[in-house]
Amino acid sequence: MTVRPSVRVEAKDFDVGAETASLRVGRTDIGAIVTFTGLCRDEGGRLAALELEHYPGMAEAEIRRIADAAIERWPLTGLTVIHRYGKIPPGGNIVLVIAASAHRQAAFEAASFLMDFLKTKAPFWKKEHLVSGESSGWVAARDEDDTAAGRWSAI
Amino acid sequence: MTVRPSVRVEAKDFDVGAETASLRVGRTDIGAIVTFTGLCRDEGGRLAALELEHYPGMAEAEIRRIADAAIERWPLTGLTVIHRYGKIPPGGNIVLVIAASAHRQAAFEAASFLMDFLKTKAPFWKKEHLVSGESSGWVAARDEDDTAAGRWSAI
Amino acid sequence: MQIRYFAWVRERVGLEQEELDLPAGIQTVGDLINHLKGLDDNHAAAFADQEAVRVAVDQEHADADRPLAGAREIAFFPPMTGG
Amino acid sequence: MQIRYFAWVRERVGLEQEELDLPAGIQTVGDLINHLKGLDDNHAAAFADQEAVRVAVDQEHADADRPLAGAREIAFFPPMTGG
């Protein structure tokens, strides 16, 4: 069975429990579900919000490419990726990855792989809004994220 | 801040969404939450249920030891571990690990570490009940699980 | 001393637990296993494949050379298959 | 050809997108960047640190030597910081 990833790019919030439930409903072949939720931190009280800009169309297409690469690499029984855009306050959800498989290693690795490539390949950009009312500008890309993506052979 | 892991060994089912919500409520310092849910598979329709036996007292103590080792090793902002016992049908929940951190790598690694050691150190044993009405006996420990636990230096 | 059994070790012994007064000379977990094997056929069957049996002393994993001095509860069980 | 800009590249150019008729001789993404830099100060500022600007051709990541033949939409943006 070929798994079709569920990919969404949207402003509205997601519910991890509901998304997990919809992925597993009626299934008895799933042994492991790994979810990753990325949240907005307040950076020690400094940050009022993150504003996520994205490239509509390419964002969905690029996430789908990464998801398809994961499905080709690991024996997944389900895969959901949701990435939000717009203004997100501290404590709010930014991104969700759910990977399901018969075995735990595949689920862990696929979710980690998805996140490494979302960080470095999906066309989203974060701007910081400070509690002082100013914007401190665009978040710089981190070398560690390129290093993390480099752990996996190229997709 | 020292994180205190929430550890429960119980027969009753858990709710991933509710457990995640309770771990993150009111927090603005969490950047990443990884959940692992282990489910009962029907093994291609062969299995009617898994029956989990455990060693009361030691099960909680051993999980707490593993959780404390994870908290010492990674900068976690929250950690929840729930392991069920009793009879669990295909599609049902067996185990839940939730690891929260400022950054994704710590959350992924801590959750994976917890699962590797739960598999090999926590005193639980699975017995298979078949749809034929027979029991096919106790699930054998897998060498792969020892290998997986061996990836981490001893705890 | 309280002895507890789990999973197929429990099924082979035919008991969940038993209280035993140990004869002198039993110093370690290994000594205890040898003593239990001599009790009856059920115990002998449980420990026939001794490599496959794991031990906990007072609810902590232990090896065969672990001394029993001061211990209250010894448990025997197969390799764990939880998670 | 449709040109799109995102994040600080967009802010420096001062435009979200623009439709440009390209002069002959512009064959690759690299040629296009050189052309854009010459348009005005805003474009020059956006591409001043050219190494920091990423490119997509028809919504797929591309390099400077990517030919433009057949392309409809070219986008310029900083390294991605989603996830």
TrEMBL record, chains A, B:
GO molecular function list: molybdopterin synthase activity
Give the GO biological process terms: Mo-molybdopterin cofactor biosynthetic process
Quote the Pfam families the UniProt record gives: MoaE
Show the catalytic activity: 2 [molybdopterin-synthase sulfur-carrier protein]-C-terminal-Gly-aminoethanethioate + cyclic pyranopterin phosphate + H2O = molybdopterin + 2 [molybdopterin-synthase sulfur-carrier protein]-C-terminal Gly-Gly + 2 H(+)
Q: What pathway, per the record?
A: Cofactor biosynthesis; molybdopterin biosynthesis
Q: What is its EC number?
A: 2.8.1.12
Top-rank EC class of the record's enzyme: transferase
CDD domains hit by this protein? MoaE
Q: Which UniProt keywords apply?
A: Molybdenum cofactor biosynthesis
Q: Coiled coil located at which positions? A: none
Listed InterPro entries: MoaE_sf (IPR036563), Mopterin_biosynth_MoaE (IPR003448)
Keyword Membrane listed? The answer is no
Q: What does this protein do?
A: Converts molybdopterin precursor Z into molybdopterin. This requires the incorporation of two sulfur atoms into precursor Z to generate a dithiolene group. The sulfur is provided by MoaD.
Assembly and partners? Answer: Heterotetramer of 2 MoaD subunits and 2 MoaE subunits. Also stable as homodimer. The enzyme changes between these two forms during catalysis.
By sequence similarity, the record places it as follows: Belongs to the MoaE family.
What is this protein's name?
Molybdopterin synthase catalytic subunit
Species of origin reads Roseibium aquae
UniProtKB/TrEMBL annotation, chains C, D:
Protein name according to UniProt: Molybdopterin synthase sulfur carrier subunit
Cited InterPro entries? Beta-grasp_dom_sf, Mopterin_synth/thiamin_S_b, ThiS/MoaD-like
Q: Transmembrane segments in this chain: where?
A: none
Superkingdom of this entry's organism?
Answer: Bacteria
Record CDD domains? Ubl_MoaD
* Gene3D superfamilies, sorted: 3.10.20.30
